[in-house]
Write a structure and sequence with these properties.
The protein is an alpha+beta fold. It is built from six helices and 17 strands.
Length: 341
């Protein structure tokens, strides 16, 4: 549906010659080459034989109209206490990704430094959670049971324990591999990596959450990022770009209690604390398309259980969604809702 929508906008695109138009900061294409369009920046040389600028202003306006239409539908759904369909949420989130890409900062905001180093990379939300927790066994149901032991009748505790063991067994025997990548350059906002040999079985996708750290400093913190681009080089190696999300994150377990995603079992999630870095906002990473704004979740940190309400969508990919949230004073019961900042 999204490809069909975008193809309908191609009539609003214009290919303009470079007469008196600065090329830097624009999307462009070389008409004498089979290579795809690209963004032209001052720090990457582009030698084009027959360049054209792709003028997108009218397309961006159409995207904004379509996105506002989706967002109004989402708000109407929330006001009527209905759940927007999974397809509707995925389409809305895809439009948000297009908006983020087309309206991104045209100039690099942080200095990039060339570096030749090896890093360890774990791909996917679950793998990132595993390594950020130092490989600790994931038993959220048993952890919750221990925290709520005094609230459970002794006559039903054995049944509750058996149910928790059964649910937690789903997470056991999961293997999350890491592999070394060569680091080409780095900046405050991200890094560029390359896989040079034995890349055939390297499963990595654009939009995946990743955890990465210097391979020579195994005591260093895992950083959290998202794969922004991926390409294959002429030697069949892989190049990828990572946008940094946080210099650290807290592994948690989350499950839905009210709203979209109500009734789910525990998933692995990541909590990004407030003010770990200058531009960082407190947020939570959860599996893609499971929850939505106003969903109320239990957050299980093994030794502590608290409750949050998702506030706004910061980022969404096919692999994960990132939300800001408010902390609830107590578990959601009926229509009583109390929040703290």
């Amino acid at each position: 549906d999204i490809f069909y929508l975008v193809s309908a906008w191609t009539g609003a695109c214009h290919l303009l010659p470079l007469d008196n138009i600065p090329l830097e900061g624009e999307y462009a294409v070389d008409m004498a080459s089979d290579k795809p369009p690209r963004f032209v920046s001052r720090d990457i040389v582009w030698d084009a034989i027959n360049p054209r600028i792709i003028e997108l202003s009218e397309v961006k306006q159409r995207l904004e109209v379509q996105l506002q239409r989706f967002l109004r539908t989402s708000l109407d759904t929330i006001d009527h206490n209905e759940q927007q369909s999974l397809v509707g949420r995925r389409q809305r989130d895809m439009l948000l990704r297009l908006t983020e890409a087309w309206n991104g900062a045209p100039a690099r905001e942080t200095d990039r430094h060339h570096i030749h180093n090896q890093v360890q990379l774990a791909t996917g939300l679950s793998a990132s959670h595993y390594y950020l927790s130092s490989g600790e066994i994931f038993t959220p149901e048993l952890d919750e049971l221990k925290l709520k032991t005094e609230e459970i009748e002794p006559t039903v505790f054995a049944t509750a324990y058996e149910t928790a063991m059964q649910k937690d067994s789903f997470h056991l025997n999961k293997s999350y591999n890491i592999r070394p990548w060569w680091q080409h350059n780095t900046s405050e906002s991200g890094t560029a990596l390359a896989c040079k040999t034995d890349c055939e079985n390297t499963h990595v996708k654009v939009g995946e959450a990743v955890a990465y750290r210097d391979q020579n400093e195994t005591t260093s913190h895992w950083k959290l990022g998202v794969v922004r681009w991926l390409s294959v080089n002429p030697e069949n190696g892989l190049n990828l770009g990572i946008m940094n999300l946080a210099n650290s994150a807290v592994p948690i377990a989350i499950k839905g209690l009210r709203g979209t995603g109500f009734g789910t079992d525990y998933f692995r999630g990541l909590l990004i604390p407030k003010q770990v870095s200058l531009h960082q906002t407190r947020s939570v990473l959860v599996p893609a398309s499971v929850y939505d704004v106003h969903s109320e979740l239990a957050v299980n940190m093994k030794q502590r259980l608290f409750y949050i309400r998702l506030k706004s969508l910061l980022r969404s990919t096919n692999e994960f969604s990132q939300f800001t949230f408010d902390v609830m004073v107590s578990a959601p019961i009926g229509d009583v809702e109390v929040f703290v900042s």
